[in-house]
Amino acid sequence: MLVHPGVYVPRWQSLELARRAAARLPDDGTAIDLCTGTGAVAAALQAARPGARIVATDSDSRAVACAQANGIEAYGGDLFAAVPTSFRAVTDVVVAVVPYVPSTELHLLPRDTLGFEDASHYDGGPDGLDVLRRVVMEASGFLRRGGALLLELGGDQADLLGPTLRRSGYAAVETWSDEDGDPRGLEATFG
Length: 191
Prior knowledge:
The protein is α/β, with parallel strands linked by helices. It has a single domain (14-190), classed as Rossmann fold (3-Layer(aba) Sandwich), CATH 3.40.50.150. Helices cover 29% and strands 25% of the residues. The protein has six helices and seven strands, in the order αβαβαββααβαββ. It has a seven-stranded mixed beta sheet, with helices on both faces. α1 (14-24) runs parallel beside α2 and α5 (130-139) packs parallel to α6.
């Protein structure tokens, strides 16, 4: 996998996210990968479900170019803005690794992280939920009933997203943690 300079570098924590997304994606299904970076999650979905159509978006033109170089159908734009309209209300899986670090905690990231990558790849606003909330609300316009939204997150963010998930029409919500017991992700079913 190519990683162009300045593009978000895939992390091992995203492996479980990609595995769960692939499990929810039908062989001939459709998926959207938001904030794709290098396209690593989209590539994992393509490898697991070669008959599915996966599109990816990123607001960073460097990331779009990198994902495309990695064989991903990637578009430049803010979250869902660049997703083809044919994906509305029929998408099986929306997966995202968005900026979710609270602004006040950016200084806790490893020193080299912000030396090689832009802070915008991490800064999720005051509580880290600015972009996560938008994804939850906007994904409901793209997911089919029974479709899945999978998000990488941390801390108590899954609990804090609960009211937004309910208002946006998500039913079953499951979370998972890494081997250290740290919360790492959320899987919600729409409808």
